[in-house]
UniProtKB/TrEMBL annotation:
Gene3D superfamilies: 3.40.50.880
Matching NCBIfam families: metA (TIGR01001)
Protein name per the record: Homoserine O-acetyltransferase
PANTHER family listed in its UniProt record: HOMOSERINE O-SUCCINYLTRANSFERASE
GO MF entries: homoserine O-acetyltransferase activity; homoserine O-succinyltransferase activity
Family: Belongs to the MetA family.
Pathway: Amino-acid biosynthesis; L-methionine biosynthesis via de novo pathway; O-acetyl-L-homoserine from L-homoserine: step 1/1
Organism: Adlercreutzia mucosicola
TM stretches of this protein: none
Length: 319
């Protein structure tokens, strides 16, 4: 089944060129089914790139998904054309009275700042508070995951001695979680961050559970026990060349940066990177959409966000 996005969004052409089924708004309007309503809060500076990466993962499921793009009203985006933001993005004030099956909050290059020092932190807090009653399940990525687990559960972030940068091997802590159904016992995922959330803090919190960790990169996936919040501290959506682009950018700025770990064959930056994380990344998004959004969200979208209790598999019982 397709993903439904605006006809003129730049990601449309990119996804169609990959033979991904993208449904036009016109065609979707003539289908008598309720698609999943997802809101993507894009905090990344390269918004078009991030849109395309995440939409690619959301599209490869049997579900029809309608995605709306959200930007921060209290932050001026400098790396995306104003006409793109005007055409495709909305603001929180425009959606605060609506309900959504799912919310995705991306990362942002602000890890070195304290949360309260980020200029849009009050607005982000308002959105995360709103999500408690208006969103069925929220998927947080990288800094977005650190911000979410701090806001909702008080788990702090800690500075790393050096940037976690590269593709790292991970082990499953909770193999029975439907979120990682189909995963190998050990799998690879990209990380790119200066801070971390510690496994001991997550394990000590009664409302959180640890799903996957890396000996080198630390915590990768955690979730709330009621399945309302998911925290992914890496970047499973990254393309093959994303880490190379970040490395080249940092070097061009004069920053001392080690090569991304386990990324270039033979640590040769002239070599084509090996993509070792694509299959698990797709499963992660697909499993979240299927088990924790589609199968458990109420058909009446206005009830999305109601807390009726859930078991560890995301199955909710009626109040």
């Amino acid at each position: 089944m397709p993903i439904r996005i605006p006809d003129a969004l730049p990601a449309t052409a990119a996804l169609e060129s990959e033979n991904i089924f993208v449904m036009t708004e016109h065609r979707a309007m003539h289908q008598d089914i309720r698609p999943l309503q997802l809101l993507l809060l894009n905090l990344m500076p390269t918004k078009i790139t991030t849109e395309t990466q995440i939409l690619r993962k959301l599209s490869n499921t049997p579900l029809q998904v309608e995605v709306e793009l959200l930007q921060m009203a209290t932050h001026a985006a400098k790396n995306t054309a104003a006409d793109h933001l005007e055409a495709f993005y909305t603001t929180f004030d425009a959606v605060r009275d609506r309900h959504f099956d799912g919310l995705i909050i991306t990362g942002a290059p602000v890890e070195k700042l304290e949360f309260e020092e980020v200029d849009y932190w009050p607005e982000l807090c308002a959105i995360m508070e709103w999500s408690k009653t208006h969103v069925h399940s929220t998927f947080h990525i990288c800094w977005g995951a650190q911000a979410g687990i701090y806001y909702h559960y008080g788990v702090p972030k800690h500075a790393l001695p050096e940037k976690a940068f590269g593709v790292f091997s991970h082990d499953l802590v909770k193999r029975t979680s439907p979120l990682v159904r189909g995963f190998d016992d050990r799998f690879w995922a990209p990380h790119s961050r200066f801070t971390e959330v510690r496994a001991t803090d997550i394990e000590a919190h009664p409302d959180l559970e640890l799903i996957a960790v890396s000996d080198e990169a630390g915590v990768y996936v955690a979730k709330s026990t009621d399945s309302s919040n998911f925290f992914v501290f890496g970047h499973p959506e990254y393309d093959r060349e994303t880490l190379r682009a970040e490395y080249d950018r940092d070097v061009a700025r004069g920053e001392a940066r080690a090569l991304p770990a386990h990324y270039f064959p033979g640590d040769d930056p002239a070599a084509a990177p090996e993509a070792t994380w694509f299959s698990h990344a797709q499963l992660l998004y697909t499993n979240w959409l299927n088990y924790y959004v589609y199968q458990t969200t109420p058909y009446d979208i206005t009830r999305a966000g109601e807390k009726e209790g859930a078991d560890e598999h995301g199955h909710r019982s009626e109040a």
